[in-house]
Amino acid sequence: MDRVAVVCNANLCRSPATAALLRARLRAQGVTATVASAGLLPGDATPGDGLVEAMRERGIDLSEHRSRRLDADTVRAADLVVTMEHHHLGDVLLLDRGAWERTFTLKELVRRAEEAGPRRPEEGLDRWVGRVGRGRSRLDAVGAWGDDIVDPAGGSPAQVLETVDEIGALVGRLVDLAWPREVGRAP
Question: Which of 6, 182, 135, 12 is nearest to 79 (CA)?
């Protein structure tokens, strides 16, 4: 079973939205996977009404979500770690120095995956992630502001919707590449 961890600052908007949208898309394709989300800040907070409503409009209930702090076990267990901002990469590596090869911002991952091509039927997620990251340097992440998804925390409901729409589009592209119809379907 594929295991994905999604990371943002507080685990109150971008990472829970990404994880929920990814779970829903994978479930719709019959893919069995574990998708967790966590943040860099202390946990046990609830998401704002703007996110709950934006996700409800997409058929997903996040009203019971409670934030949780990212830990080393979550990073080590993941075949793929997806962050919302380029500086989160360093925070992940502080927890597991060996996570570089499987940790990407969502935008970087989708861009590189489109260049590398979709996962092949016989290719495990770990091998596909390795292929996607081939030739990647840690210097690529320095100042990679263009790979960040803007945090709408404290913003208007329209800003939250804009972020959720952006994430939804990226998740759709990612699923089409990492879990194409012929890969990972439940028996």
Answer: 6
